UniProtKB/TrEMBL annotation:
Its main location: membrane. Keywords: Cell inner membrane, Cell membrane, Membrane, Sugar transport, Transmembrane, Transmembrane helix, Transport. GO terms for cellular component: plasma membrane. Part of the binding-protein-dependent transport system for D-xylose. Probably responsible for the translocation of the substrate across the membrane. This is Xylose transport system permease protein XylH. The chain crosses the membrane at residues 12-31, 43-63, 70-88, 94-114, 121-142, 169-188, 208-228, 234-251, 281-304, 319-346.
């Protein structure tokens, strides 16, 4: 029991939110008479929250560096509007339009990153200006009207599913195989981590704890894929999200860039004296945020099948809330990509569950605000206990 307690204390933010996510899911599963975790609703949960989760991945990097980005919702709307002009009005090839849209997002991020990193204007001010600027540009580009419909191939980003090779089956075989493959990868990753600990003489987790942790993850993965297999299988956007999570988690945990981002957020002066090019790191974090904002705007436009002047409203608040609920620190230096995803899922399950039980938008907003306040309070309490 002492080993479990120690493991939990070391990972209290992440494990605490995983437990909260499970509790909230079970709570609303009971309140909705089993509707919450039905295959159709689980798929809808993924589709409805995909663009917020994309933003949360970029936002957690910004928050770790000690900054904030209030413009992501407006940038998403602006890029969605530009993509509609290219694909709907100009009849441009969707692949080319998507590439150009992502490049435009990078330019937007570079514009804001320049003012934050090199001119030293606080990110709050720069991105607040960006929120107003790009919302206004969205209105100008769309002339106050929606543009639709998008090409079918583009819509599949948000509404398409990975094809299955067994048409006559009641279960999606590709999805079940994906669950098995992921289970094998979990086992291999656990073995690799233990071997690395032995090689470098790090403190090792007890073997039985590693086995229980891997077994629990494998059960969750296979239950999740089994539920998806009962509907249409794996949505395209889920595959995109999994790739993003894997890539960004690897960068933050295993690459020099990730270590520099954490160092910058922990103590900028110390990081600079240690040789970290703090201005360059800040600049590229905002460029990355611009690209992911563009991707979020494309995903939302594809799901809505329309570019609208009001797209992206409050996206920034949901993304920031997901990061803080997922364990990121308001003072920087702390946070994980997986934690931000868990925080986004907590918000998504709450939104969906409250809608299913018939709570009004007023109550939903109030409860979400209270959850965010409690999450940040929990973070401050933990820091005071470890200080």
């Amino acid at each position: 029991m002492g080993a479990i307690s120690e493991l939990f204390k070391k990972n209290i933010r992440q494990y605490g939110m995983i437990i909260a996510l499970i509790f909230i899911s079970v709570f609303f599963q009971i309140l909705t008479d089993g509707i919450l975790l039905k295959p159709l609703n689980v798929t809808n949960l993924i589709l409805q929250n995909s663009y917020i989760l994309v933003l949360a991945i970029g936002m957690v990097l910004v928050i770790i560096t000690g900054h904030i980005d209030l413009s992501v919702g407006s940038v998403a709307a602006f890029i969605g509007a530009l993509s509609a002009i290219m694909m709907v009005e100009q009849q441009m090839n969707p692949v080319l339009a998507v590439v150009l849209s992502l490049l435009m997002g990078a330019l937007v991020g570079a514009w804001q990153g320049f003012w934050v990193a090199y001119i030293k204007i606080p990110a709050f001010i720069v991105t607040l200006a960006g929120m107003l600027l790009f919302r206004g540009l969205t209105m100008i580009v769309l002339n106050g009207q929606s543009i639709a419909p998008f090409p079918k191939t583009f819509q599949k980003i948000s509404s398409g599913f990975i094809p299955d090779f067994s048409d006559g089956s009641t279960l999606n075989i590709v999805t079940l195989l994906a669950g098995i493959i992921l289970s094998v990868l979990v086992v291999l990753q656990e073995i690799r981590m233990r071997r690395t600990s032995v090689k470098y003489g790090f403190e090792q987790t007890q073997l039985w704890i590693s086995i229980v942790k891997a077994a629990a993850l494998i059960i969750v993965i296979n239950l999740f894929t089994f539920v998806l297999a009962q509907y249409n299988g794996i949505p395209n956007i889920l595959l995109i999200l999994l790739v993003l999570i894997a890539v960004y988690s690897f960068v933050m945990n295993n690459m020099t860039m990730g270590r520099h981002i954490y160092a910058l957020g922990g103590n900028e002066k110390a990081a600079s004296l240690s040789g970290v090019k703090t201005k360059r790191v800040t600049f590229w974090v905002f460029v990355n945020m611009g690209v992911l904002s563009a991707l979020s705007g494309l995903v939302f436009a594809a799901r809505l099948n329309s570019a609208t002047p009001k797209a992206g409203t409050n996206f920034e608040l949901d993304a920031i809330a997901a990061c803080f609920i997922g364990g990121a620190s308001a003072s920087g230096g702390i946070g994980t990509v997986v934690g931000a995803i868990i925080g986004g899922l907590v918000m998504g399950v709450m939104n969906n569950g409250m809608s299913l039980v018939g709570l009004g938008v007023d109550w939903q907003q109030g409860i979400k605000g209270l959850v965010l306040l409690l999450a940040v309070g929990f973070d401050i309490y933990n820091k005071s206990k470890t200080a």
